[in-house]
Design a protein that fits this description.
Strand content: 5-15%
Order of helices and strands: HEHEEHHHHHEEHEEHEHEHHHEHH
Number of strands: 10
Number of helices: 15
Helix content: 40-55%
Distance between the termini: 43 Å
């Protein structure tokens, strides 16, 4: 390295990455998007950033990146499991929480005895209803066992060159969970919370209430970190990060926008309860994130925050269950191609921001029609020449329109 390049490296502004949650689907989207960004952005290495923040399923990805696992290798591990030496079996997330069931079952006899006693001792209807409500304490706090998450990641991070200890990492990693008894966010990896194993912190950050039991750490119970905020990007910005790349996989769906799939309902109520609940969750998550983005611009005016997320008319992301692994190859490829397309469409805006940090967009990568993330996608027949030429012409016209609008 020359003296000049060494000086440039020393003067490089700190960079960071913030990953939101979104269940298994969110992690799949983030892997696809990160792989596209890693290949298309020249001048940034997503395994050597200054700070990582992960929330919920985003904690899986952030912890892997901080441990030197590349986005492409994560794709082989999580998406194409059969192509990796340490494959991730999606079925481990669906194992019943037998210990939690047993623990609650043991508490049932004394609770039931107390209810019977109160029924015999009181004729007050309100007291009887209250007695039956006490039986709810015997219900399990989660359906599936999330201890397997801790065990899998502990084995993964035990490999040479990796660590399960925040304090031994070469870069800062923060995994955010929510203290169930106070509702306060806790940043595992920060001083005072960096003694917790990384794998256990991921388990706590991804403990979605109702699906997974709370995770007990140092006498406190923790659940999903997204309960308080969506991205927790301020955690990285407080570390002095000047360029923060953010990925949020969950956005509300707008069926009125162009690009709606003909097979999807025009009105979400036609999709029944799952569609209504999914839209409600996404609207809440996204509105909080928008508020956060506005606050970051006010509180950290010297930092550039770049956000990547699906389009609001992306039916592929909306009409797939966020806990489904069945379509993970298709969705990962979808996120990969969508992010490459977004980089091309936003390049005039992004080039100015990224150039301040010594980063450039590789147009040869984002416009290469032969690039794929998933192996099976390479087997599909190529586009006919007319379709490809028409697509490039449409891109050129769109580009001209954006340039004229920018010039105006």
């Amino acid at each position: 390295m020359t003296a000049r390049s060494s000086a440039r490296a020393g003067a490089r502004k700190p960079r960071g990455l913030a990953l939101a949650g979104g269940g298994p689907l969110g992690a799949i989207y983030e892997i696809g998007a990160l792989t596209a960004l890693a290949e298309a952005l020249d001048g940034i290495d997503f395994n050597h950033l200054d700070a990582y923040v992960g929330v919920s399923s985003g904690g899986f990805i952030a912890a892997g990146l901080a441990n030197g696992i590349t986005p492409r290798d994560m794709s082989r591990m999580f998406i194409e499991s059969d192509a990796h030496e340490a494959p991730f079996d999606p079925s481990i997330l669906l194992r019943p929480a037998l210990r939690e069931y047993l623990r609650r079952a043991v508490s049932l006899p004394p609770l039931a005895a107390g209810v019977v006693w109160r029924i015999l001792a009181s004729r007050d209807r309100a007291a009887l209803l209250e007695s039956f409500e006490r039986l709810a304490r015997a219900l399990p706090t989660g359906i599936f066992d999330n201890q397997v998450v801790d065990a899998f990641l502990a084995r993964l991070f035990a490999a040479p060159g990796r660590t399960n200890d925040f304090r031994r990492l070469d870069r800062k990693l923060f995994l955010v969970a929510t203290d169930l008894d106070t509702g306060a966010p806790v940043e595992f990896g920060a001083p005072g919370h960096d003694h917790v194993p990384i794998s256990t912190a991921v388990q706590a950050s991804a403990a979605l209430p109702g699906l997974f039991p709370p995770v007990e750490i140092d006498g406190h119970h923790f659940v999903d970190g997204a309960l308080k905020r969506t991205l927790h990007a301020s955690v990285a910005l407080r570390q002095g990060v000047k360029l923060l790349v953010c990925i949020n996989p969950l956005v509300p769906y707008d069926s009125r926008l162009p690009g709606r799939n003909a097979r999807t309902p025009r009105r979400l109520a036609e999709g029944g309860l799952p569609a209504v609940l999914a839209q409600t969750l996404r609207a809440i998550v996204h509105s909080r994130m928008e508020v956060g983005m506005q606050r970051y611009r006010r509180e950290f005016p010297g930092a550039d925050v770049v956000l990547f997320e699906p389009n609001r008319h992306d039916h592929e992301m909306f009409f797939t269950n966020i806990f489904s692994y069945a379509s993970r190859r298709r969705l990962a490829e979808h996120a990969y191609q969508k992010t490459r397309k977004e980089l091309f469409e936003r390049r005039h805006q992004l080039e100015r921001v990224l150039a301040r940090h010594g980063i450039a967009i590789r147009l040869d990568v984002v416009t290469d029609p032969e690039r794929h993330l998933v192996r099976s996608a390479r087997l599909r027949p190529p586009l006919v020449a007319g379709t490809r030429i028409a697509g490039r012409l449409a891109d050129a016209l769109d580009d001209l329109e954006r340039w004229l609008a920018h010039a105006a």
